[in-house]
Amino acid sequence: MTVTWEESGWEQVAAGVGRCRLPVWDCTAGLVVGEGAVLLIDAGSSLAEGARLRTEAQALAGHRVTHLALTHPHFDHVLGAAALAGAEVYGAVGLDTALAHGRDELRADAVRHGLDPHVAEDAVDALIRPRHAVCGEWTLDLGGGRQVLLANVGPGHTAHDLVVLVPGDPEVVFCGDLVEESGEPQAGPDAVPSHWPAALDRLLELGGEDAAYVPGHGAVVDAAFVRAQRDALAARFGVS
Ligand SMILES: [Zn+2]
């Protein structure tokens, strides 16, 4: 590594695994460093933010970002993606069409949340489509014995929720917005509330009791927190 996690303002969660909390919407971006391959998880809310993540990730990893996983099609997680156009992009099956057909809504939603309209316009115009659609689970080999699991555990927060599991000590689970710590989980018009608790059951099954769970927004939590949030969502939406 050319800079340390501390120097860069990123939080190290396990060896070679970190996350950064982006300004304004407190959206998480994750980083997994392999050997000759580097995975970024989510791309920030604008082209400038995506470029910042690319630069910081490269400095941390000592290698360019080769893979990008998008956890779901919300503006604060995807609008920086075009700044990482050289990466192989992964998303839950259907994410590509959701992004292609939902451009106007994506732009409107970003502006509603306070993003500058021109910044939103530029990012939506440049938006890239994921090349790799994950249904079920997909193992990604990042070299040096580093394998991560991309798992389509949704729908829940959206119809296209992808999580990333990184074996290690601790195992790290990037949850996207299926889990939020800094506020109530956000259920917009594109949420699938009836399936959300089941998505969290699957997430807990895959991650286990000892994993560090990195929410889409907020501090790293444990399995007990995720289970409690699952039960609260089930009660909120009237599903078991
Ligand atoms: Zn979201």
Sequence-ordered SSE layout with sheet pairings:
Blueprint: H1 5-8, E1 11-14, E2 17-21, E3 28-33, E4 38-41, H2 47-61, E5 67-69, H3 75-78, E6 88-92, H4 95-101, H5 103-112, H6 117-126, E7 132-134, E8 137-141, E9 147-152, E10 162-166, E11 172-174, H7 196-207, E12 212-214, H8 223-237
Parallel strand pairs: 4-5, 5-6, 6-7, 11-12
Antiparallel strand pairs: 1-2, 2-3, 3-4, 8-9, 9-10, 10-11
The structure holds zinc ion (ZN).
Zinc ion is lined by residues 72, 74, 157, 177.
Q: What form results from the Cα inertia axes?
A: globular
The radius of gyration computed from the alpha-carbon positions, rounded to a whole number of angstroms, is 16 Å
Poorly predicted residue ranges: none
**Percent of residues in helices:** 25-40%
Q: Biggest sheet, strands in spatial order?
A: 1-2-3-4-5-6-7
Largest β sheet strand count, sense and barrel closure: 7 strands, mixed
Task: Supply database-style keywords.
240 residues, 7-stranded mixed β-sheet, 12 strands, binds zinc ion
General description of the model:
α7 links the parallel β11 and β12. α5 packs antiparallel against α6. The chain is globular, with a radius of gyration of 16 Å. Helix content is 32%, strand content 22%. The chain contains eight helices and twelve strands. The protein is of the alpha/beta class. The chain starts with a helix and ends with a helix. Zinc ion binds next to loops.
